[in-house]
Structures are given as C-alpha cells and as structure tokens.
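Record type: ASSEMBLY
Status: queued
Input:
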Amino acid sequence: MTGRQEGLIVELEYILPGDIEKRSFEIIDAELEQRGIHLPKEQRDVTMRVIHTSADFDYAKTMTYSKHAVETARKLIREGADVVTDTNMALAGINKKKLAEFGGQAHCFMAEEEIAREAKKRQLTRAAVSMEHAARIPKPVIFAIGNAPTALVSLYELMQNRGWRPAFVIGVPVGFVNVEAAKELILKTDLPYIVNRGRKGGSNVAAAIVNALLYGMI
Amino acid sequence: MTGRQEGLIVELEYILPGDIEKRSFEIIDAELEQRGIHLPKEQRDVTMRVIHTSADFDYAKTMTYSKHAVETARKLIREGADVVTDTNMALAGINKKKLAEFGGQAHCFMAEEEIAREAKKRQLTRAAVSMEHAARIPKPVIFAIGNAPTALVSLYELMQNRGWRPAFVIGVPVGFVNVEAAKELILKTDLPYIVNRGRKGGSNVAAAIVNALLYGMI
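Status: finished
Output:
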C-alpha cells in the first residue's frame, strides 16, 4: 500500500481481507468500553453489527429490544420464517443464502406494479400497501423495515383492524416525518421487536440486524 | 391513522405520500438553520439528501467537495457516464432509470465469481479487484464507494501505477479499519470528488449522493 510513503495523516494499516471485520469489532468493543457502555449479552451481536454498518455509536443508546427478542427472532429463523423488507436496498443487503439454509426467503414487494397502482388509487404509500400484501404470506414473517414509517403504521393497523399479527418486527425506518411516532406504535404492542428509537435507522441498518441474527445462529 | 386516539408521545402527522419528502427537506432545512449551518449553494442538494437518508446532521460538517464537484459530476452524467459501486445495496438504491435517461449504466462487480476467485488468489478484497475490473470500462466512470476503503486504495494505486484516472470519485465508505486513511488518499489527488471525511458513510449514503446528483439535473 502506498499510504506510508505518502505521509498520510491517518496511516493505512496492512491487514488481510479476512481479518478486517474481526479487527473492526475489536475496535467497536474497545470504544464501547471507553464510553462506559455495557451492552446486554443477548443484544451485543446485533447492536455491534449496527454500529459496524453505520460507524455511529448513538445506536448503543437507542436500540430497543423486547424481552428475549434476539432469541425469539433466531427461533423463528430456525423454523423457516421468511423476511419481508420495505426496500430493495435492504433486500440486497440481507444474506439470502444463509437465510435459505433455514428454509426462509427474503421478499420486497415495493417495486411491483400492482403495489404502485393500488397505492396511487388509495392515496397510500407503496410501503403501506406492500405490508398488506405481505400479511397474506401463509407462514411466519419477520418484518425488517428500514425506510418507511408508513410500513410500521400499516402493520399496526392490520393488527388492530384485522386481528392479524406479524411474527416479529425489526423497526428501524429513518427520517423526519412520522418516523419516531411509528416506532413508538410498535413499542406499545406486545409483539417481539427490535426497534431503534428516534430518527435514525435505514435499509443498511435493517439488513445488518437480519444478518447479525443469521450470523449468530448455532 | 390510529396514532391520535392511542395517546402517542410523538403523534403521527397526517400527510399525503407525495408530500413526505418535501416535508422532510423543510425540516432538515429548518434544523440546519437552527444549528447555524449554512451549506454552500452548490452542495446543498447532495448534503441535504445525505442527511435525509441518515437522519444524521454530522454529515453537514464532514461532507467534503472538490471545487465545482457537483457541477462536474452532473456534466459527466449528462454526457452518459456510467456509475460503478462497491455493493449491491448501493446498486439497488441508485435510480438506474433516471441514470439511463442520460445514457449511463450502473454496475457492481462484487458478486461475480471471477472477482471472488481472483481476490482469493491474490489475497486482496473483492472490492479492490472489482475496481481493477471497472477501470477497464471504456467510457467515463463515476465511482460510488459506500463500503470498502480498499476500493478507494485500489483506485489510488491504479492512478499511481498505471496512469489511469477515474472520472469522478464518490468516497463514502463506512467503518473502522483504514476508512479514514483511504478517504484522505482521495483528498490528496487532483481528482474531482465528493468524500465524507471520517468513519461515517455507507451504501445508502453512496446511493443518496448519486440520486441527489440525478434529481438536480436540468
């Protein structure tokens, strides 16, 4: 690498490709320690991978888990649950091969023409309509919402109005309009969930959570 | 929406789907003002969309542009430049339809078997090898790097060792190992660039930057 010769302010460290992730987690671990943050054991894998994907230690304070959430989600995956996301970015980021080892499939219905048509007609977001669509999947589904708060509101309304229940909700939409309120809706339910309170989140965070669940499977 | 009846701490605001983005940008604008941050006019579209995609105002301080970077990138797109990214997540997030209107294509070579094979053999990251692959595209290319610092190092080394030049670099990898140093490498060149200094960035940020460039095209 050319870094050293060129007198970089921050020097490049020589590291083998296979060791980058391990080294990253060591750094995150050390910095959590420095900040006096002790993550509950069950939540460590997931919160640390979210920090790894965002380089943002705020998540250590805002990631919120229902009781035994990680265990519950892994049990669902082990039993073949599907994953539904609200963006094709999250879908691209999820390790679908690993999920398939347990019999699960990942879906995103956002780009389907039928969804767009119905959303336009009903003045709803495509995310909201695609949740209704996903609610018809005849097996347990983990919803991984990284973008649209309206997707979370839609899940909540399906519960209230139709007595339907999602198996698990990963609620990490990002943004400025209704994002915090939509997350609080999910926190009020008795669903198993992993939610990042506040405005932050994203498709990358949603995918990171699903992958952390998968990578920690025994 | 059910929010109001349920006595939410943060209430849901009723808003038409088409107005959510506009309202989000108004909030970002107002909060930048409150924080006393005045973004240079040419950079506003891009930095604001990055904040929109991350809900993180840190980007207002760390986003770094070469002189007339936005104008330069838009000129390249207008002339049909391709975009190469280092993740399939960023590829999924880029508005490829809009890019195609100007004759450009978006690529990600990370998942190709040939890349994986060569990376393993040479003890390099797949990202580094896929940059070498992309350097053979016989037209101007905007590199949008949201994940792998080794992709930026690879671009730099191709410049040093082979006299090749990328047309433009969006350098926003995220992480803890060599991320800051790799970004500083790009800042030292005379390339046109948009870089987020520090550890933060991501595939979502890379896609947001490309989309902000596209959406601001006249």
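Annotation: DSSP finds eleven helices and six strands in chain A.
Annotation: The beta strands of chain A are 63-65, 82-85, 106-108, 141-145, 168-171, 193-196.
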